[in-house]
Design a protein that fits this description.
alpha+beta; 7-stranded mixed β-sheet; 4-stranded antiparallel β-sheet; 2 helices; 22% helix
């Protein structure tokens, strides 16, 4: 009976570990697949603004809003477009803790839509691309809200906020970009000194041919706290996206 109990306990522990691993790998797949999709369409003629723990860029693709929008007295519709400002970053929640956010704001010239406010980071922004291109440095450089930095805590019970919700159980989300170090004679990742101060690094791909990749590092956790690495909860992952030649 004692031996049977040991076997049963081992089986249960193995099952819990396998379930926790599956949960983490599902989160990993969701994050990396979305990053790959977004950066496959990254607009190389526009700046990418990188903070140590946040990124915002312009991408092409087949974008659609989750909500329906229209004039107060008129019919509502899905906003669609082939250009969107996209950000990734950690966001505090009303319930406490943080989640990984991904937000997209579709650029549209459809003036039948209600006016949009960039400071609220809605699902769309009424601005033709030629105007956005002329103002992109000011938009990305001074309007940190476009990167999701100055928004109130996310309410997971709010339909409006759910458009920015990507996944929970994530921490230590950092972004680094590749540069050639002439002195060291090798490729390096910046910022790579281990200090992640809240400063921005504007990467203009079309002006920096040596920048061909971004590295995303993050720790994922299962809901039961079973998976550990180095004696600490969670498992660290690194994902690199390439957008150069």
């Amino acid at each position: 009976i004692s031996f049977s109990g040991v076997i049963f306990k081992v089986s249960i522990n193995s099952y819990r570990t396998a379930t926790a691993n599956t949960e983490i790998m599902q989160k990993l797949r969701a994050i990396t697949d979305q990053l790959n999709t977004d950066f496959k369409g990254v607009h190389k003629g526009m700046p990418i603004v990188v903070w140590s723990n946040r990124i915002v860029f312009l991408a092409t693709g087949d974008f659609q809003s989750i909500g329906q929008y229209g004039p107060p007295a008129g019919s509502k519709k899905t906003v669609a477009g082939n250009l969107a400002s996209i950000f990734y970053g950690m966001t505090p929640t009303v319930a406490g803790g943080q989640v990984l956010s991904r937000g997209q704001m579709i650029l549209t010239s459809d003036y039948s839509l209600p006016d949009s406010n960039a400071l609220e980071l809605g699902e769309y922004f009424k601005m033709p691309f030629y105007e956005f291109r002329a103002e992109c440095k000011n938009i990305f450089g001074s309007k940190e809200t476009w990167a999701g930095k100055n928004l109130p805590p996310l309410d997971t019970a709010s339909e409006k906020d759910l458009v920015r919700y990507m996944t929970k159980g994530v921490s230590n989300f950092t972004v680094e970009y590749e540069r050639w170090d002439n002195i060291a004679g090798k490729l390096v990742w910046l910022p790579g000194d281990g200090t992640f101060v809240d400063s921005d690094h504007a990467i203009q791909i079309h002006k920096r041919p040596g920048t061909r990749a971004l590295k995303f590092t993050f720790t994922l956790y299962d809901s039961k706290g079973i998976i550990k690495q180095g004696g600490k909860p969670g498992r660290k992952f690194t994902h690199i996206v390439y957008f150069g030649g």
